[in-house]
Design a protein that fits this description.
The protein has 427 residues and is an alpha/beta fold. The protein contains 15 helices and 14 strands.
Length: 427
């Protein structure tokens, strides 16, 4: 592997220290934390620059050996939505350059930015420091706008323009899946030769079957003989939690006896456009007559989240768009089947008819049909769960980190080659 000494990572709008599942914190937070830890374990130090969202934060926090998180003051600490952050990018960039000014020249070998807001800061920093820029979109405006959920808000044109600029500026783009790489090429005219596919990973030490489904249910106060249909993640239209509730209504309409066995935990907090009506899902459960079956729980730490996965008969992911779908990979690592919309990276994670079911659309009746199979055939949960656990073993973060280092090395070598060619041209 190429030796990259230090990497500056940018995550402007959400900190790797934030709790995933609430606000803007989600799979990208997990991605940055786990990737940074593994890179450090392989000998590459990482500094993550993120915006300070409350007063009194330490300027620099050690996340893990070899991984630092730097809080940059940019705008008011609280009350800023993600949509208002472009106006603070200049202040954020200024804070980054102040940190850089205290460093010796050549301190960082490379910049790795995450999400389009960070990409603009990364672009400027990489140019200023004379190092390559590697960028990961995580989500794309044009892709999200093509698959909007009912009641969701379209991404602004400014974001589409900004993403196009970053694609042109980056030395390398990292896509989570081959489909995402294709979307970068189709929608943003990315250079295929500079677009690499690196599947994210799963922390297989945390997300594992452990002592089994029954024990997890006892710890969580769930019925050991119940059918537990879990939603885990940010509560917003994009993630489609309302589809699960409508599917549950279909299930109990078709078999009223299921009311005695069904439990539907919703683990997560409002996010994005879901913040405008945080009580929307609770009211929907009441309207559908299934409020007695649904249990709303706040976001939890990863070890507790692993218990929710283990306890579930199936994880349900009716998302309209997913860059990858880490939640599905985590659930499968815990030995839990997944019923998901066939979008984004979910077909990479979920083995159709083997570890779960993929639904080609968002019709609650189709989700209900797939879920009914687990209700009617409890043995299917264990059979699919064992296959799910085996499949998840493909997605270790150590593999993702090594492949990311290869991308870093290619970007650096190309930059060096171009620089040497420029020197030769000028004699």
């Amino acid at each position: 592997m190429p030796h990259i000494r230090r990497v500056a990572m940018f995550s402007v709008h959400t900190s790797p220290l934030h709790q995933p599942g609430t606000g803007d914190a989600g799979g990208m937070n997990v991605y940055i934390v786990e990737l940074a830890r593994q890179l450090a374990a392989l000998g590459t130090e990482v500094e993550v620059f993120t915006r300070a969202t409350e007063g009194g934060l330490e300027p620099c926090v050690e996340l893990a050996p070899g991984v630092l998180v730097r809080h940059i003051d940019a705008g008011p600490y609280e009350g800023l939505s993600k949509e208002e952050l472009p106006a603070q990018l200049c202040a954020f960039t200024h804070g980054v350059t102040q940190v850089w000014a205290a460093r010796a020249p050549g301190y960082f070998d490379l910049v790795h930015s995450h999400y389009w807001l960070s990409g603009h800061v990364g672009w400027l920093a990489a140019e200023r420091w004379g190092v390559p820029l590697v960028h990961a979109m995580h989500t794309m405006a044009k892709v999200k706008n093509a698959a909007l959920a009912t009641g969701d808000t379209p991404e602004p044109a400014a974001r589409e323009i900004g993403e196009t600029q970053i694609v042109r500026a980056a030395d390398r783009l990292i896509a989570n899946t081959a489909e995402e790489a294709g979307q970068l090429v189709r929608h943003y005219d990315a250079d295929p030769a500079r677009t690499a596919v690196v599947h994210p990973g799963v922390n297989l030490d945390v997300f594992r079957p452990a002592d089994g489904r029954a024990a997890a249910r006892r710890r969580l106060g769930l019925p050991e003989d119940g059918v537990v249909l879990l939603f885990a993640g940010r509560i917003q239209p994009l993630k489609g939690p309302d589809i699960l509730l409508h599917a549950v209504r279909e299930l109990v309409d078709g078999d009223p006896g299921l009311r005695e066995r069904l439990v539907v935990p919703i683990v997560g907090g409002p996010s994005g456009s879901g913040l405008a009506r945080p009580e929307r899902l609770q009211k929907l459960a009441v309207r559908l007559g299934i409020a007695d079956l649904v249990r709303f729980r706040p976001p939890v730490a990863q070890d507790r989240l692993a218990d929710w996965y283990r306890a579930a008969s199936a994880l349900v992911m009716p998302s309209y768009s997913e860059s990858f779908g880490l939640v599905a990979a985590e659930a499968q690592a815990c030995g839990t089947p997944v019923v998901a919309a066939a979008v984004g990276g979910l077909p990479v994670i979920v083995g159709e008819g083997e570890t779960g079911f993929l639904i080609g659309g968002h019709d609650p009746a189709e989700f209900a049909g797939a879920l009914r199979r687990f209700c009617d055939h409890p043995g299917l949960v264990d059979r699919f769960g064992e296959a799910a656990h085996r499949r998840a073993a493909r997605f270790g973060w150590d593999t993702a980190a090594r492949e990311t280092l290869e991308v870093y090395g290619a970007a650096r070598e190309e930059r060096r080659f171009a620089a040497s060619g420029l020197r030769s041209a000028h004699g």
